[in-house]
Amino acid sequence: MSVEDLTQVVPDPLDEIYPEDEPQFVPEPPKKTWIHTASSILLNIQKYSAYGFLGFYGLHTASTVIIPGIGISQSACQDVFEMCRNIYMAPLMEPTMVYATGIVHIGAGLALRILRLWAKKRPKMKETDIIIKEENRDDIGLGGIGTIFGLGFKKSWISSTFPSFTPLTFSGYVLTAAVAYHVAKMKLGPVSVDGDSSLVTLSYVTHYLNQSPWGKLGNIVNYGMLALVSWVSFYHTVSGLFKYRRQFSLRAKKIAYGVIAFLTGLSVISMTRLRHWDLEIGFLGKQFAKYLFVV
């Protein structure tokens, strides 16, 4: 066939040959199970209850850690502490900002843990020395100290030893135990003696760090538990906030470590200062001793 044998034809639109509206196979998205729905609800409850608790936590940390830690005078520290306490211990604020949000956060976390353990089998393999590239994995936490030096992310010892735990959840359980001890000493003791904790000031912390029914060993335990509740709360709060804000980059993790280290350092300075303040004498001194020896 030569070129002369070719004839011109009327062009047909391609839409008639390959219609765009022709039905195509689209796989159906997987249906959400009740476990997935319940987990999402519990995660949201845990998230927003944490935001509510931050109001109290911020005021309490500022008045007990930051202000004494930066070297402000004792009288000024007491004034700031009492000012902050008057805010979060107001009649409507304390039950909601402190107790309700804290209990809801812990309860939602426990319910979520039970739900996940029931629905998911524990992994059989344990990863320990594997360098991880995914920066948003829960089992790496903040990536380990090596993250600061650019050595990459590594699965945490906690997640390797206890596969059902992440560093964030494990710190939450440790924090719950430490907070229970803290509340017993700082709240339940005074309430059991006087019916309230209105006499508690930073000077009471001085007695807490120097007086104990178990003598010097008790003082060491009190100091250690106060340091523990401070450090773990800083880690849990900062790590949780960065997770909620979807901040998983290497830079974000370095910032998180810096904030935790800074606040922990201030807490040690604050406790050291409070430990060397003069003990109260007279009525206050006797009441503080009763608080500490009753619990």
As an assembly, this protein is: single chain
The largest β sheet comes out as:
2 strands, antiparallel
Model regions low in confidence, pLDDT < 50 over at least 5 residues: none
**Biggest sheet, spatial arrangement of strands:** 1-2
Rounded to an integer, what's the Rg over CA atoms? 28 Å
- Record field, number of beta strands: 2
Strand content: under 5%
Tell me, briefly, the overall form.
elongated
How are helices and strands ordered from N to C?
A: HHHHEEHHHHHH
Number of domains: 2
SSE-based structural type: mainly alpha
Discrete helix count = 10
Amino-to-carboxy terminus distance? 107 Å
Q: What portion of residues is helical?
A: 55-70%
Mean pLDDT: 84
Short description:
This protein is 65% helix and 1% strand. By secondary structure, it is an all-alpha fold.
Describe this protein with a few key phrases.
single chain; 295 residues; mainly alpha; 2 domains; two-stranded antiparallel sheet; 65% helix; 1% strand
